[in-house]
């Protein structure tokens, strides 16, 4: 008899979680999800800026190897590279196999918030950054910025050498 009373008390005390316990768990999960979301957008932005930097370096190497001016165009949420033949004045856009197009779209939610003015950087046959229209080499570094929400990342194309970081 004593045993059945004890079992009834155990069942009575195991009703579930209290409201306070549930609220605390929900708050902790919300904090963790916010941290993960912030880190994810930062990682996406970091990956995107490295991709843009590598593609700028690619445009520079194409200019050096072909001895033709190559232009890197910035759109608000994409970019592209064109080979420019000064003798004919014609431009041919470069195909990106990984994007399956002649332009590269930025990841969702990422945009150029501070593209250079004008929205183009060219590289001459020596790999030096220069003005897209006149071909005059830059005397100042060129900075551009990618944004994802409130997070931003800057990259710089160094004058004279074209080193991008």
Structural account:
There is one protein chain. By secondary structure, this protein is an alpha+beta fold. The chain has a single domain (2-157), classed as minor pseudopilin epsh domain (minor pseudopilin epsh fold). The protein is built from 2 helices and 9 strands. It has helices spanning 2-13, 19-66, and strands at 69-74, 78-85, 90-93, 104-105, 110-114, 120-123, 129-130, 142-148, 151-157. Strands 1, 2, 3, 4, 6 and 7 form a 6-stranded antiparallel sheet that branches. A 3-stranded antiparallel sheet has the order 5-8-9, covered by helices on one side. The radius of gyration is 27 Å and the shape is elongated. The N and C termini lie far apart (80 Å). The relative contact order is 0.15. The model has no long low-confidence stretch (mean pLDDT 84).
Number of DSSP strand runs:
9
CATH fold call: minor pseudopilin epsh fold
Biggest sheet layout: 6 strands, antiparallel
Approximately how much beta-strand content do the residues carry? 25-35%
CATH superfamily: minor pseudopilin epsh domain
- What would CATH call the class? Alpha Beta
């Amino acid at each position: 008899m004593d045993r059945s009373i004890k079992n009834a008390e155990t069942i009575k005390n195991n009703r579930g979680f209290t409201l306070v316990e549930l609220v605390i768990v929900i708050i902790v999960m919300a904090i963790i999800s916010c941290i993960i979301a912030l880190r994810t957008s930062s990682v996406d932005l970091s990956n995107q800026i490295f991709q843009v930097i590598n593609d700028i370096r690619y445009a520079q190497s194409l200019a050096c190897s072909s001895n033709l001016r190559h232009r890197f165009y910035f759109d608000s949420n994409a970019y592209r590279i064109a080979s420019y033949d000064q003798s004919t004045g014609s431009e041919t856009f470069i195909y990106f196999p990984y994007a399956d197009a002649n332009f590269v779209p930025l990841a969702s939610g990422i945009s150029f918030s501070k593209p250079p003015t004008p929205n183009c950087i060219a590289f001459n046959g020596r790999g030096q950054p220069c003005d897209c229209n006149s071909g005059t080499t830059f005397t100042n570094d060129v900075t551009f910025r990618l944004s994802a929400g409130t997070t931003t990342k800057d990259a710089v194309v160094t004058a004279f050498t074209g080193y991008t970081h």
